[in-house]
Write a structure and sequence with these properties.
Udp-n-acetylmuramoylalanyl-d-glutamate--2,6- Diaminopimelate Ligase, Chain: A, domain 1; about 350 residues; Trimer_LpxA-like_sf; UDP N-Acetylglucosamine Acyltransferase, domain 1; alpha/beta; repeat; about 30% strand
């Protein structure tokens, strides 16, 4: 699909410097721009590329003043970065604008599916499922019995949503996610073997949640595992049974959260963090990557390490840790000197 500079200017409320009929059909980095592509300049570090790029249209800040000739048509806006983000969102909406049902698929007669939907090939939708308006389910996905999915949610290929789970509006669940698998619940018996504890709860995902590829969220033993509004989960995260994650919390890749842990609102959790079960993490907590959390954390704490402790204390301690061999050698030398003094 092609757009002219004037059409894009109308979307972004921008000012055109150059050819208003210049056409673009793809997006690019400024240093990799080719004829027919649209790019942007926001970071001054990339300014030299605007004089060499082959991109047809470049979105720039209104404050930009060219020091020499620019071949591209310029589109001046108040904030080039935000404007380009808006274009990316617009482009993504067009790219994901599929509708209708592909064959083959299996949809229960009791399922209720809203208008303007997309159901990809080899999708299975179970009994009493409800899908809202504008929901898109990409190929090879499974939606179990009694699941509800809110308006405008996108479920990418290969997602598995087990029975009785509830997904809110405007969510994005990326490929390979498993929502509602059994929690890790076993009890040892007299023979030293383990018996499975039935997991009869569900998963509730509220509105505006993004879940990265191959992330798993286990159903509760009783009650619900809950992902609150606005949460953003990266790829390959494990959320165990009965966990609750507060609204607008973001968690990076490969983090594991054990059962019944409660995480507050607005937290930022780095990659490869391990959190034990049954702890409470307050609001606006920041946990640095590869930290191990084994106790409750209060609101606004910033921690690092395994076991994690105060971020500033960790950095001070790490300076000494790096110099530990030198400190040990100094200690040995000091002991040697004291011994020689005593002998004298």
């Amino acid at each position: 699909m092609k757009f002219t500079a004037s059409q894009i200017a109308e979307i972004l409320d921008g000012e055109i410097v150059g050819n208003p009929n210049e056409e673009v059909s793809t997006l690019s980095k400024i240093e990799e721009g080719q004829k027919g592509s649209l790019t942007f300049l926001s970071n001054p570090k990339y300014t030299p590329y605007i004089y060499s790029t082959e991109a047809s249209v470049v979105v720039v800040n209104k404050t930009f003043i060219a020091e020499k000739e620019v071949k591209s048509t310029l589109l001046k806006v108040d904030d080039a970065y935000q404007a380009f983000s808006k274009l990316l969102e617009f482009y993504n909406q067009i790219k994901l604008s599929k509708t209708g049902k592909e064959e083959p698929h299996s949809i229960s007669k009791s399922a209720v599916i809203g208008k303007n939907h997309y159901i990809g090939a080899f999708v299975y939708i179970g009994d009493n499922v409800t899908l809202g308006d504008n929901v898109k389910v990409y190929p090879n996905s499974y939606i179990g019995d009694n699941v509800t999915v809110g308006d405008n949610t996108i479920i990418f290929s290969g997602v598995r949503i087990y029975s009785d789970c509830h997904i809110g509006k405007n969510c994005m669940i990326n490929s390979g996610c498993v929502i509602g698998a059994d929690g890790f619940g076993f009890v040892p018996n007299e023979d030293g073997e383990y018996s499975k504890i039935p997991q009869i709860g569900n998963v509730i995902i509220e509105d505006n949640v993004d879940i990265g590829a191959t992330t798993t969220i286990d159903r509760a033993t009783l009650g619900s595992t809950i992902i609150r509004k606005g949460v953003k989960l990266d790829n390959q995260i494990q959320v165990a049974h009965n966990v609750e994650i507060g609204k607008n919390t973001v968690i990076a890749s490969q983090t594991g959260i054990a059962g019944s842990t409660k995480i507050g609102e607005g937290c930022q959790i780095g990659g490869q963090v391990g959190i034990v079960g049954h702890v409470v993490i307050g609001n606006n907590v920041k946990i640095q990557a590869q930290s191990g959390i084994g106790k409750n954390l209060n609101d606004n704490e910033v921690v690092q390490g395994s076991p994690a402790f105060g971020y500033s204390d960790f950095n001070k301690s790490y300076v000494h840790f790096k110099n530990f061999p030198k400190l040990v050698n100094s200690l040995y030398q000091l002991e040697k000197d004291i011994k020689e003094l005593k002998e004298k």
